[in-house]
Every structure is written in structure tokens, then in C-alpha cells.
Amino acid sequence: MSNYIYGITTAEIMSIFVCVILLCYCVFEKRGQERTRRDRLFVLLLVSCITALVADALSWILDGNIRLLPVLYICTTLATLMSFVLICEFIIFLTAYIREKQEISLFFEYIYMAFTLVASIFVIVTAADGKLFTYENGVYADGPWYTAYIIINIVAMMLSLVVFFTYRKSLSRHDFIATLPYIALPCIAAAINAIVPEFSYAYPAVTLALVVVYIMLQINDEIQKEINARKALEYAKIAAESANRAKTAFLFNMSHDIRTPMNAIIGFNNMALSHIDDKDTVVNSLKKVGTSSKQLLSLINDVLDMSRIESGTVKSEYEPTDIVEEAGDLMEIIKQSTQKVLNIHIDFSGVAHKFVMTDRLHTDRILTNVLSNSIKYTPEGGTIHCIIRETPASRDNCYGYDFIIEDNGIGMSEEFLEHIYEEFSREKTSTASGVQGTGLGMAITKKLVDLLGGTIEIQSKLGEGTKTTIHLEMEAADPDSVSAESTSIRGEIDVTVLKDKKVLLVEDNELNREIAEDILTDEGMIVDTAEDGDIAVEKMKNAEIGQYDIVLMDIQMPRMNGYEATKAIRNLPSTYASTIPIVAMTANAFEEDKQNAVDSGMNGHLAKPIEIPKLLEMLSRFF
Does the reported pTM lie above 0.70? Predict the structure, then answer.
């Protein structure tokens, strides 16, 4: 073996060794991880390079060996063929690398694949009939078509350069530097080989290029990770600053909106105290204290509801309902509760199917918010139309409904409509418009409509009025499953049944206990009190049958909470204790709190602050 052949084969064997190490590293580095298309193509490049190196090295080592002439032909043909395949694979690798960052055309990829296919066929055909190369007496010699092969190789390299520089704009500076060696080093080796035929180090040059490309890409990936980390930190900083601004705005709005009714409560309370002998002034002041208290409670409820919706704890609970009667009752209640003189027209004639499965609680809240806004922002003598219209549904066994509430009130500007679903958004401040509101109603409405899978559309013109259309789809329900009780307004409460009924009032707060005791004794009930849950359990344990008719139970108490106390009472050996009605009377007012009350063994739930009609209605259910 000549020194020339020895040098080439030594370089190629070392290149094979390097490629195998790099291949093993690439395979085992991401073992068990999901590989990108780029990763898989780089492994393919390494396998192809090893194949080319082995074939070329064998063709040099076996040169002149007549006995292994078929092997020589196969190795030389394979080594020749791989020169096109390696460039084609790199083009595909490059496009896959760029597509990780942006969408690009596959035009060049398809063109190069077609070119490679044609070139491969040329190599196979010309090698088979000895026109590409021959082995006379086992010694390699160029064939008559070898020049054509060189020209095709040059064209292949030119095409790869065209592709590479076409995608140049799609590559970052780091990507360009990382992938350039694969094009540059083989081209340099081929150019040198054209000038100095003895310099046949193209495949070792490809190996070196792959190593450099791999190292550069690894460095580039680390740089990109660092850039992404910096961007993530920047985004986190922006998000934190935004959250801080939102928090500040929230506290600012809350401070104003809480202080407004609180100022009225404190002011009118002081006025009532200072005019204690003037009945009319005291009554008027207390009425205004009550109105302001309701405004404050509405604000607190809105804030809590918004928090629960955003935290994802609000769930939909569907039940069979007469949607016409439910909406009609709700709108009638709101209509009767307003002190304004308004023309409110209700039209549900466009509904053909009224029995549906619906989330009554959230549907009522949506309609209440929208109708309440129309009433608030429509001046005396104005007109409000409440319409339900059945529409085609997009799902089987469902009906679509458009709930339309239209008024001729003060309306809203187009600029404000873009922000109407934002928290604390109001067309004018309460000071300027004279209308009290939290600015949370429509934000809550939109989130509830989304929760129910519906849509809401608002059309409004300043000074002309507002039209709100809510579209909901509801599953059909069996009319027999809709109970009359669930869709009708309760009649008058018969409070006479409460007289002389014995109540165990469990409440740790002295003021709340005093208020509840006064309300109950005013209705002729006999009240016994317990300051904590453990005291209530002890009293029920020692109580004689009939000593108490009902238990009103607070939830949050120092030593034993209401749930624990109820469970303890239900576990007492006495049948009387296990069956006595227990009603939660608590500031825990969410749906999950009601469910917790039921799960602990309670028979009902009342939310604080206590509304006397609701308290009396609840108590009357058990007598």
C-alpha cells in the first residue's frame, strides 16, 4: 500500500471512529426523550457519512485485489453515490432546522430530492456498464463518463449553495455560522481535489464539517436557551408589573366603591342617633342605611364571584327547568323591585320548546345582571323590552335561545364597548353619572356566558339605548321532570307556624347572636343560645325529646366548627338528635359551602347577612 493510499485510508478510518462516537452520543444523549425531526435527520447524516467512509476506505484498501473485484465495484459505486445523498440529506436537515423557527416552502427540498434521485440513477447505471469507472487488473481507472459525474457533483454543490443562501435570511447569525461549515469544508476539499487529484479527502472533510456543525448547533442551542430564559424573565417581569398595576387599580377602585356606601351607612346612622326623637328622620335614615348596606353587599358578592370564576372553582349544575316560567318569574321579581316608573314589556311568544336542562343559578345571574343594568341606566318613563326567541341549535337534542334585553336608556359610546367586559369598567364614574355600580357586572356576565358555552353581543349608541343579545343552547328535558316548585314564585310566608317553636341558636359572635335572637323572638319563637359548636353538641346530648324544634348553626367557630358539630349531633345515639332540622346560618355563601352543609348532615343553608324574609321562609319549611 502506497503512502498516498495509506494516508487517505488512515484519515477515513479515523473519521469513521469520530462519526461512530458522535452517533452514539446523539443516540444516547436523548434516550427516552422526544426527538425533533432535526435530531433524526442529523443521526441519518451520520449514518450516511459512516457508510460513505466505510465504502470509500474499502475501495482504497482493496484496490488491485482481483479476487474481490465485485466487492470493489460495490464499494466504489456506493461511495460515489453517497456524495449526492449526503448533500441532499443536509438540505433536508437545513430546512427542518429552519422550520422549527418558522414556516418555509418545501420547494427546494423537493427539487433537490428529485435531482439526487436522477444523479443516483446516473451513478448506478454508468457504474454498472463501466462508463463511470473501471478496474483493469483490479486497479481503479476513471471511465468515459467520469467527467460528467464531476460536472453533476459541481452542479449539486452549486445547488446546495443556492439553497443555503436562499434560506440565509431565515437563519439567525448563530444559525448561519453553525451550518456554514457543512457547505464550505466539502466544497474546499472538492476544489483542492480538482487541482490536486491526489488529494481525495472529501469524506473526511464531511466528517469534520459534521463535527463542527454539531458543536456549533449545541452552542447555538445553549445561546437560544439563554435568550429564551432572558425573554421569559422579561415576560415574567412585565406580567408581574401588570399584575401589580392591576392590583393597585383594584385596590383603588375597591377603596372608592367600599367607602361610598360606608360613608352613607356611617353618616345616616349618626343622623338617626342625633335625631332619635324625630321618627321620620330616623326611619328615613335607616332606610338609606339599608340601601347602602345592600350596595356594599353587592360589591362584596361581585368581587368574590369574580375571584371564584377566575380561579376555575365555578361549576355548571344542570337541572330540568321551564325556561319561560323561570325567566318570567325572575324578570317579574326584578320589575317589581324597582322603584322607577318604567315600561317593561316581556315577550316569550317566540319559544316553542320551554322544557330544557339548564344551569338555573348562572342563567338567572346572567339575566339579572343585564336587566338590572337596563333598569339602572334607563331614565324614568323609559322602555325596556325583554324577549326570548327560540333559534336553531348546533347540537342534536338541543334548543337554541336568544335572550334579548333592549332599552332606550343613556346608552354607551363605541369606545367604551371595547372595554365593557373589563373589570371595574364603567362608561362614567358613579359620581358623574349618579348611578351606583361596581363595574364588575358585565365582566361576570361574560365569564358566565362563556362557562355555559354561549355568546353575548351588545349594541349600543350613546343617548339612544342598548340592546343585549345572549345566545344559549340547552338540552331538551322531559316535561314531567320539571317540578312546579322549582319554577314558580313562592307565595306569602305563613309566620304563624313559627310561634312558640324552640330554636337552638349556635353563634360565636355576640352581635350576630343578638341580632338573630331579636329577629326570632319577634316572631314568637323561644331561643336558646350556644357560643360554640362543642357547647351545641353538649346541649343536644343532654336535651330531652322536644326541647328544641330546630338548630341554627354558624360554621366558623373557635373550638368546633359547624360542620363538625353537625356530624357530632347526627352521631348521637338519640333518634331525636339525628333527625332534628339543622340549618347553616353562615357567611360562607358559595355553592360549595351549601354542598358542604348538606354533606355534613344539615337540612338547609342561609347566607349572612341574614335577610329576615329568607330566614322566616326557611324556618317555615320545617313546620
Answer: no
- Grid cell listed for 67: 479476487
pLDDT per position as a tens digit, 155-191: 877 777 777 777 777 777 767 776 777 767 666 766 6
**Cell output for 35:** 426527538
| Helices 279-311 & 202-274 angle (0-180, nearest 10) | 170
Q: Give the cell for residue 556.
A: 366558623
- For residues 506 and 539, the answer to whether their CB atoms sit within 8 Å is no
- 250: helix, coil or strand? helix
Q: CA angle, corner 291, sides to 285 and 296, nearest 5?
A: 120
* Helical spans, DSSP H, in 435-502: 441-451
Distance between CA 92 and CA 68 in Å, rounded? 36
The pLDDT of 431-451, averaged and rounded, is 74
Residue 162 to residue 602: CA distance in whole angstroms: 79
Give the DSSP letter of residue 348: E
Read off the pLDDT band of 431 (50, 70, 90): very low
Place 478 in a pLDDT band, splitting at 50, 70 and 90.
Answer: confident
Could you give the CA distance from residue 57 to residue 7 in angstroms, rounded to a whole number? Answer: 11
Q: Measure CA 416 to chain center.
A: 26
Q: Can you name the residues that pair with 476 across neighbouring β-strands? A: 356
Average pLDDT over the chain, rounded to an integer: 81
Grid cell 440513477 in the structure block, residue: 121
> Residue 504 pairs with which residues in a beta bridge?
528, 551
Q: Which one-letter amino acid corresponds to residue 433?
A: S
Q: Give me the pLDDT at residue 429, please.
A: 40
Q: Report residue 277 as a C-alpha cell.
A: 326623637
Cα angle 108, 102, 211; round to 5: 70
Cα-atom radius of gyration of the chain, to the nearest Å?
A: 42
Q: Using DSSP, state whether 85 is helix, strand or coil.
A: helix
Q: What is the dihedral of CA 420, 424, 429, 433, to 10 degrees?
A: 50
| Beta-ladder partners of 356 | 321, 476
- What does each C-alpha distance from 395 to 238, 472, 476, 608 come to in angstroms? 42, 12, 11, 41
Rounded alpha-carbon distances, angstroms, from residue 369 to 114, 412, 469, 572, 601: 65, 16, 13, 45, 33
